[in-house]
Amino acid sequence: MKVTLQALADALGAELKGDPGLHITRINTLDKAGPGEVSFLSDSKYRHLLAETKAAAVILTAEDSAACPVACLVMADPYLGFALAAQRLDTTPAPAVDIHPSAVIAEDAVLGEGVAIGANAVIESGVVLDDGVIVGPGCFVGKHTRLGARTRLWANVTLYHNVVLGSDCLVQSGAVIGADGFGYANNKGEWVKIPQLGGVVIGNRVEIGACTTIDRGALGDTRIADNVIIDNQCQIAHNVEIGYGTAMAGGTVMAGSLKVGKYCIIGGASVFNGHMEICDGVTITGMAMVMRPITEPGIYSSGIPLQPNKEWRKTAARVMRIDDMHKRLGRLEKQLNNSSEE
């Protein structure tokens, strides 16, 4: 991959200060970049590296450009510039090219123009793959599932029946979409399975991480709105609804029938109770346990921060005594009130 500095500036919408014909081949950090590489400065704590950088060019703000010893790509948000430059210089191969002869494709499956299907993939009856869809090797696409234009599945993704993915989605390896939700009735100690009859509907420009599971609905559908990003190893239970632009970090677990609003940010390893609603614009910090609805936007946290083991053992012992301490405090308050009345 090779682009001129002018072409890169045009792709970023940045102001160029330097040789427009300079060739850029990759992106790197300020301290590691060398000739032919572009870097970026978006965090002031790395500003001290700017004077010594060997990069061919740096993406930065107008404020920092005066101190830059090399060519500059000046823009208001250098981190966005980094993302756009990384896209322009991306050398990641496609999950599949053309249709591999070992792929098993049902006769009535509908394939758009430019569809690619990798080795040993299975495309079942009633599937629709819109233009430019790429299905990686070893994938399973179940009956009556539809993938929107330019959606990509990496290797060994499993899509059950009646799953809908919109356009420009990206699903990483090992993800499972449309598995049965955890629905059972109990008959005198014996578990009776409740067939999960709903589906999964996923919007456009959604990214789903490796080994994440999104369960199908029990009756209605599990729904993920447009522009949602979901990290690796997340569990999204049946009939969950996630609103536009929400981001979820790795290891998050969501119980059934949870509703999450728009533009929420969810830290890793968070756990959500089901059958409740989280409003728009909520930030949940990592390892939070969300047991009640949230009705006001803001930042919410729970959990105990890391301590040296000796201190943590004391904290844990005190936490176990909170109920007793609460009762003793109540008795003391009552005694004080009685004394003041006398």
UniProtKB/TrEMBL annotation:
GO terms for molecular function: N-acyltransferase activity; UDP-3-O-[(3R)-3-hydroxyacyl]-glucosamine N-acyltransferase activity. PROSITE patterns: HEXAPEP_TRANSFERASES. Its EC number is 2.3.1.191. One of its GO terms (cellular component) is membrane. Coiled coil: none annotated. The active site is at residue 238. Keywords: Acyltransferase, Lipid A biosynthesis, Lipid biosynthesis, Lipid metabolism, Repeat, Transferase. The keyword Amino-acid biosynthesis does not apply. InterPro entries: Hexapep, Hexapep_transf_CS, LpxD, Trimer_LpxA-like_sf, UDP_GlcNAc_AcTrfase_non-rep. GO terms for biological process: lipid A biosynthetic process. It catalyses: a UDP-3-O-[(3R)-3-hydroxyacyl]-alpha-D-glucosamine + a (3R)-hydroxyacyl-[ACP] = a UDP-2-N,3-O-bis[(3R)-3-hydroxyacyl]-alpha-D-glucosamine + holo-[ACP] + H(+). Pathway: Bacterial outer membrane biogenesis; LPS lipid A biosynthesis. Residues 23-87 form the UDP-3-O-[3-hydroxymyristoyl] glucosamine N-acyltransferase non-repeat region domain. Catalyzes the N-acylation of UDP-3-O-acylglucosamine using 3-hydroxyacyl-ACP as the acyl donor. Is involved in the biosynthesis of lipid A, a phosphorylated glycolipid that anchors the lipopolysaccharide to the outer membrane of the cell. Belongs to the transferase hexapeptide repeat family. LpxD subfamily. Homotrimer. This is UDP-3-O-acylglucosamine N-acyltransferase. The gene is lpxD.
